[in-house]
Design brief:
Blueprint: E1 15-19, H1 24-35, E2 39-44, H2 51-57, E3 64-69, H3 75-88, E4 94-97, H4 119-134, H5 136-140, E5 145-150, H6 175-197, E6 203-208, H7 223-232, H8 236-239, H9 241-248, E7 257-261, H10 266-272, H11 274-285, E8 290-295, H12 304-320, H13 328-331
Parallel strand pairs: 1-2, 1-4, 2-3, 4-5, 5-6, 6-7
Antiparallel strand pairs: 7-8
Helix pairs in contact: 3-4, 4-6, 10-11
Amino acid sequence: MGIKLGCKEDLSGKVAIVTGANTGIGLQTAKMLADAGAHVVLACRSAERARPAMKLVTEGPKASAEVIPLDLSDVESVKSFAAAFLKKHKTLDILVNNAGLNTTGAYKGPTTTKQGYEICMGTNYFGHFALTALLMPALRASPDARVVALSSVTTWFASNKYQNYVKGASKTKGNYAASKLACLAATIECQRRMDSKFPDNKVKFVAADPGFVASDVWRNYNVVFRTVAGALALDTAEGALCSVGCAAKVDIKPGALYMPFKGVKMSTLFGLNKRLAYDLGMPFLTRLFHGFASDKPAPKSKSKEATEKLWELSVEFCRDNDVGVDSVLLSV
């Protein structure tokens, strides 16, 4: 029996945003949420390139969607997107911070954002942090808001010296992993701060690891790797199930990490041997134990000292770029 796709929950009346929704996991996430009844905003860099995605997402009988341009590597675009969304929508129920840039492999693109920040940290983390801060009024207006951050098993190998990945091009190949660790650590910290200051808040921050997926994130790798990965990996629709679960399931634990495994804890395998867990565990156990369950995050994501530094850098980023200095998220 194959992996069952789709979202079983009824999301009618809910409003969702999916960043990077024109391709890969983001596209499939947007389609499943729309098929379940949510009105989905496709947040994509190019409205032109989002048209085929819009057509696919709105095929279902209950599907409703719109496109608002968003370039996470440009803070001005982030602010414009938030302003455009808040002008049309007072409530935001689901924010899936899906878009991600991986500069490993044969990547030939820019090494810094438009404002000069390291490209992976600036796009994958700072851009999403600023977006979430700006959208907090709409998120807090929801009776059950979800902020879903895409995590990665690379967090087990990542550096949490976040200050090394702020301005200028990265001097190491660890920029992608560091950005994903930042997304995970911030998810945990955002929930802790919100719950501490607003015990009755209805916002759930949660991290979703899609697992071993043959997605566009591998597009810069050679054909041999992509062929082998494709044979073992989940396809993008299967890889979207963890994000969809975090966005839609009723019994989600706030501040938790979810992975597409049931009956096995990847954190246990990584705790025993990170390299074997990554090289063998993720590819070969992906289909055998496919499911949906919370798991322990990489230990570095819970470092008090490193997370305090990350929060300081995040607030500084927002203030330097005139992003929601009065936001609830920045004040907690």
